[in-house]
Design goal:
The protein is an alpha+beta fold and about 300 residues long. The chain is built from 6 helices and 15 strands. Pfam families: LigD_Prim-Pol (PF21686).
Length: about 300
């Protein structure tokens, strides 16, 4: 992109895209521009796409930057190009009163770049893929996610301790956990599974969260009541419900600075002593990829059955 250019027409994987307002600052406190957002998403797309592919995408957009208003978007926006994949899917219990939405599905690099040009900073997906089944309101999940959310007085350091305990508990069920930062204050722990009912995965996640909260009552809560969270880590198991979504690996966060939800390995989890150690900006994530490769490259390779 030409330095200082407001808009360019470019080709991405054979598709012509018009990129606009490139010099607009989307992260005012750090001066991070829309051009830099697009460039980051273009560079990371190959690692991001396995986590977006075949999943209905909810976008959180900041068209005027992260100090201005944002909005969630499920439906494909007006003017969506005909080469962008969309899928009309049920949305039971939607706050809009509609019973379905036309979702964008990001299966290719050009769609990721197009989304970045819309200032879709955060990319959220469910734990199930389109086409795994036709179960309507109870689609088949291929992931379980545990969202480790530190309450007041706790940090991601305490989340690391809980993640290690949760890893040990998962091991008793012959399941493997894959950690990443949330890009905010906490962590996410993914567990690849053989496709099964979202209701079943929700029940199982709740069971494990409550089991760990009972074993570590001073450090962990599985209860959503905020008054119970000070100095504890809340294990949010509810994101396994079919209607819920989680920020995708390698997605940006719409925050004061362009932090990234970054895959980390268990050695890093065990060694963390300060929250600053697990805050990653786009250039740091790209450097990590250059040095270590994709930490989540094998996430979907060995799904395990849930215990009966």
């Amino acid at each position: 992109m030409a330095a200082g250019a407001q808009q360019v027409t470019t080709e991405v994987d054979g598709q012509t895209l018009k990129l606009t307002n490139l010099s607009k600052v989307l992260y005012p406190q750090s001066g991070f521009t829309k051009a830099e957002v697009i460039d980051y998403y273009h560079q990371v797309a190959a690692l991001l796409l396995p986590h977006l592919s075949d999943r209905p995408l909810t976008r959180k957009r900041w068209p005027d930057g992260t100090e201005a208003a944002y909005f969630f978007e499920k439906n494909a926006p007006r003017g969506t190009p005909d080469w962008v994949r969309t899928e009309t899917l049920p949305t039971p219990g939607s706050s809009t009163g509609r019973d379905e939405a036309e979702f964008v599905v990001a299966d290719d690099v050009q769609t990721v770049v197009w989304l970045a040009n819309l200032a879709a900073l955060e990319l959220h997906v469910p734990q199930w893929r389109i086409g795994l089944s036709e179960h309507g309101s109870d689609p088949q999940a291929d992931l379980i996610v545990f969202d480790l959310d530190p309450g007041p007085g706790a940090t991601i350091v305490e989340c690391c301790d809980v993640a290690l305990a949760l890893r040990e508990l998962l091991g008793h069920y012959r399941l493997e956990g894959w950690p990443k930062t949330s890009g905010n204050k906490g962590m996410h722990l993914y567990v690849p599974i053989e496709p099964t009912s979202s209701r079943r995965t929700s029940d199982f996640a709740k069971q494990l969260a409550e089991q760990l909260a009972a074993a570590l009552p001073e450090d962990v809560t599985a209860n959503m009541t905020k008054a119970l969270r000070p100095n504890k880590v809340f294990i949010d198991w509810s994101q396994n419900a079919s209607a819920k979504t989680t920020l995708a690996p390698y997605s940006l966060r719409g925050a004061e600075e362009p932090r990234v939800s970054t895959p980390i390995d268990w050695d890093e989890v065990a060694a963390t002593t300060s929250p600053e150690e697990l805050k990653f900006l786009p250039h740091e994530v790209l450097a990590r990829i250059e040095e270590y490769g994709d930490v989540l490259a094998d996430l979907y390779d060995d799904p395990r059955p849930l215990p009966s």
